[in-house]
Amino acid sequence: MKIQRVFTTPGVHPYDTVEWERRDVVMTNWRDGSVNFRQDGVEFPKSWSMNATQIVASKYFRGALGTPQREWSLKQLIDRVVDTYTAAGREHGYFASDEDAEIFDHELKYALVHQMFSFNSPVWFNVGTSSKAQVSACFILSVDDTMESILDWYKEEGLIFKGGSGAGVNLSRIRSSKELLSSGGTASGPVSFMRGADASAGTIKSGGATRRAAKMVVLDVDHPDIEEFIECKAREERKIRVLRDAGFDVDLGGADIISVQYQNANNSVRVSDKFMRAVENDEDFDLIARTTGEVISKVRARDLFRKMAQAAWECADPGIQYDDTINDWHTTPESGRITASNPCSEYVHLDNSSCNLASINLMKFLDEDGSFRVEEFERLTELVITAMDISICFADFPTEKIAETTRAYRQLGIGYTNLGALLMATGHAYDSDGGRSVAAAITSLMTAAAYRRSAELAGVVGAYEGYAKNAEAHKRVMRKHAAANDALRPVGQLEKPIHDAATRAWKECLELGERHGWRNAQASLLAPTGTISFMLDCDTTGIEPDFSLVKIKKLVGGGSMKIVNQGIPRALRTLGYNEDQIQAIVDYVAEHGHVVDAPELRPEHYEVFDCATGKRYIRPMGHVEMMAAVQPFLSGAISKTVNLPEEATVEDFERLYFEGWKKGLKALAVYRDNCKVGQPLSTTKKEEEKKEESRPVELRSPVRRRLPKRRPSQTISFTVGGAEGYITAGSYPDDGLGEVFLKLGKQGSTLAGIMDAFSIAISIALQYGVPLQTYVEKFTNMRFEPAGMTDDPDIRMAQSVVDYIFRRLALDYLPYEERAALGVFTAEERAAQAAGEDPAQVAAQVVTYAQSAPVTETLTAPPEPEPKPRSTVESTESRKEFSADAPLCVSCGTKMRPSGSCYVCEGCGSTSGCS
What residues contact residue 830 under an 8 Å CB cut-off, 6+ apart? Predict the structure, then answer.
């Protein structure tokens, strides 16, 4: 192939186009402040943030720390990878000349050093090292109805996890627990075998050096064990609640989480059009025996669909995959059906296959005048697809079956990241026709350019091996993509030239494909891009909107500061605001975290700044509609979780799953804030409580027990997320807490007054006999800014000032047994737990008191009715603020954030499974 220069200049090395500097990287353990990673003098471009520097140095540099073999410069890392790609391209005949090979090398290095795109993590882990060159992040396995195949599944998953990647599998071939074995006994069923695989994943996750294991388990909706599969994780989540309430450490990475099953996988139900029509028409649905193909039983489709929604409402699993839609867009149906996906549901193709990913940073193509550099975006897409295809020539694979399938079909997964930032910067609301039109046009152009280059590659080095028998099907899918592009109607001026370029690219793609075929069975998808988005200094990940309007920026000299996302002032300029207005709005956002009532900001522009969470969060159906807008232009699917507020209902989940099918999605995952904490009561228990509530309730009218004029007290200073404050707690001389006064440093008169009123209300209630334990239950885990690291060795992280205050009061004034039930421990107690000792022995050395004032007099009061939750799927008015629930990072303690179906840490780049 002839490779043209787009970004580079002859005679100028790409590394000479940036200014370099040396930095020290120090990363500490949030639990005890110890240093868990340090490398001094690393070399990075001056334009790269400290956050990106830390992620790359700690995760991707190879070689033992402290040895000459350790990589210390970004140049070394990029050279290690790109030199391998260029050499393989030369060896396998990709380049017309040595000059073309050099241009390819320079263009790729330029794009990487300027943060224009990134390969997936396994490339950075493995390529150019002594390790096996496992370049794929996504794998799909297969399991048959034999014990040998099931044990092979365990082994193959382990090898994939060891290489830093994830795998998915469909277990529907395994006979159900309602069928017989050949020996005459009853089969165990697929859900029982999931336990062994889950334990294996948890073990390898704990010992792996690169990342946490990620896996997907899929079961067809007509499998006789489908109900057990749907409910298995919800049952375990109830167990987690019980264990947590009993004081066990069941957080992400906690010592006791290993006693809970099914926690290392995402579960998805594979539904057919037949099933969804049965739901729509309220019909019965057949469950089919795996061994004989006979109908074992019938279920009401709506009841089964309801159970899926109920379980997802409880614990976020199972997700849903739309089987007929997936296979209608299948380029190689003659080689087998698509039955499963990778862990985050974006890669869907043949069993025993893999896909390597790369993601383009969209903000790098936005000009200062607000236009999109269309041609540069096309050329980069072609360059990256070429590199990705070359990687299959030298890549290693965990099994021979996967190697054969991948080399025969050469599946690729180019995608993009920073879409949310691009839309905001150009003045588009994420949940708007304009925003969806821009996203659709960009996606169409990306896939058209990728497949056009794939057809050009086929003309040079040949079509994929499986193309001949799938040629008609592949061409049919290409025509479907082109037809979807023809049906796209641009809304604004930004996307019109993008759509025009996509139309030309699809026309050329079809013409070239007719002559040469295509080099790749799949070309595009949208991955979660967790770690690599932070490597690229993106404000948003994958297809996601902005998560919040402010973020923490790490400083080169150490420390950090809270900054407003840079897309906000750019968006305000696009919307016509002057610099004074912009500064006032930015200052307001920095203080409040949202734009509601920001000075000078017109209410009709609020929607441009809507985020995934916060004061104004994007309606759940808005996420689904964005996915539906881009899905017709992707070979694969989309890794994205639709977040809902805590008050969302089961009916909301049903509607989202149903609309996902109607709108042509391939897969959908839905998550309700805090669903993994509060679990719904069983029907029986609810009925018992209703009976109790129907009886008169005896209440005691409390009597206030005032504190003496002279009483003991203590004052504690603290910082939470950089905000300073003081707690003054007064006690009864003999038996515990009786008053609390709270002050925050640098507070305005309004906030000071509110804090004083809050203190008085708490103090009077304590004196009237409200147990401190009640306040601790209600106020711990409350989330709002400021939040983050504290200077208290017993409470290293706090989700808000109120969360910190009541944890501190619990430690100082509640007995150990009550604190343990609430999950509040001192540092010494946690250390004792970790060492296998009894933390109660540590607690016994400290005298604490619980306040409990006497109460007298009885009155009769009627029970209050429980309010019914309202639907939130379409609600846009009076939206209540919520922040998506996420675990703390096991590496650095920062609260993680959702990334597709998983979580990613902004502090160190660690993920719970995503590339």
Answer: 839
DSSP 473: H
State pTM to two decimals. 0.79
pLDDT at 212 exceeding the cut of 60: no
**Of residues 156, 346, 378, 544, which has the active-site annotation?**
346
Is 393 assigned a catalytic role?
A: no
Give per-residue pLDDT as tens, 239-276: 888 887 788 877 666 677 777 888 788 999 999 999 99
Query: What DSSP letter does each residue of 684-736 carry, written as one string?
Result: HHHHHHHHHHTS-EEEEEE---PPPSS--EEEEEEEETTEEEEEEEEEETTTE
Catalytic hit among 232, 344, 355, 905: 344
Is 857 annotated as catalytic?
A: no
% of the chain residues with pLDDT over 90: 60
What gap in Å lies between CA 470 and CA 460, rounded to an integer?
20
Helices 74-91 and 98-113 meet at what angle, rounded to 10? 150
Residue 242 and residue 260 in contact, taking contact as beta carbons nearer than 8 Å: no
pLDDT higher than 60, residue 29: yes
Report the DSSP beta bridge partners of residue 899: 902
Secondary structure letter of residue 614 according to DSSP: B
Q: What is the pLDDT of residue 893?
A: 56
* Beta-bridge partners for 642: 670
Give the Cα separation of 115 and 361 in Å (integer): 7
SS3 category, 349: coil
Give the DSSP per-residue string, 171-237.
-TTSPPTTSB-TTSSB---HHHHHHHHHHHHHHHHHH-SS---EEEEEEETTSTTHHHHHHHHHHHH
Please give the torsion angle defined by the CA atoms of residues 530, 535, 536 and 538, in that order, rounded to the nearest 10 degrees: 50
Mark whether 346 is an active-site residue: yes
Q: What are the beta bridge partners of residue 217?
A: 169, 267
Over residues 753-776, the pLDDT tens digits come to 888 889 999 999 888 888 998 898
What the block records as the tokens of 323 is 């089987």
- The burial class, CB within 10 Å (0-12 / 13-18 / 19+), for 768 is middle
The two three-digit tokens of residue 369, written as one number: 């005048």
CA distance 20 to 33: 30
Domain ranges in the chain with CATH number 3.20.70.20:
138-335
CA distance 713 to 728: 7
* The residue type at 133: A
Mean pLDDT, all residues of the chain? 87
Residue 691, pLDDT > 70, answer no
The whole-angstrom separation of Cα 577 and Cα 517 is 51
Buried b (16+ CB within 10 A) or exposed e, 651-678: bbbbbbbbbbbebebbbbbbbbbebbee
Cis ω on the peptide bond leading into residue 318 (within 30° of 0)? yes
Longest dimension (CA), the chain: 96
More confident residue, 608 or 590: 608
Catalytic residue among 120, 126, 267, 342: 342
The average pLDDT across 545-551 equals 87
Residue 75: phi, psi to the nearest 5?
-60, -40
pLDDT of residue 405: 98
In whole angstroms, how far apart are CA 475 and each of 458, 465, 515, 517, 702?
A: 14, 15, 11, 8, 78
- What is the tens place of the pLDDT at every residue in 567-586? 899 999 999 999 999 999 99
- What sign has the CA pseudo-torsion 614, 618, 621, 623? negative
Query: What mean pLDDT comes out for the span 124-149?
Result: 93
Least confident of 90-99, 328-337, 352-361, 691-700: 691-700
- CATH code: domain 138-335 is 3.20.70.20
Q: Quote the pLDDT of residue 678.
A: 35
Distance of CA 685 to CAs 239, 486, 674, 681, 820, Å?
Answer: 16, 56, 21, 6, 25
- Return the structure tokens found at 511: 């013409």
Residue 899 phi/psi, 5-degree rounding, is -145, 100
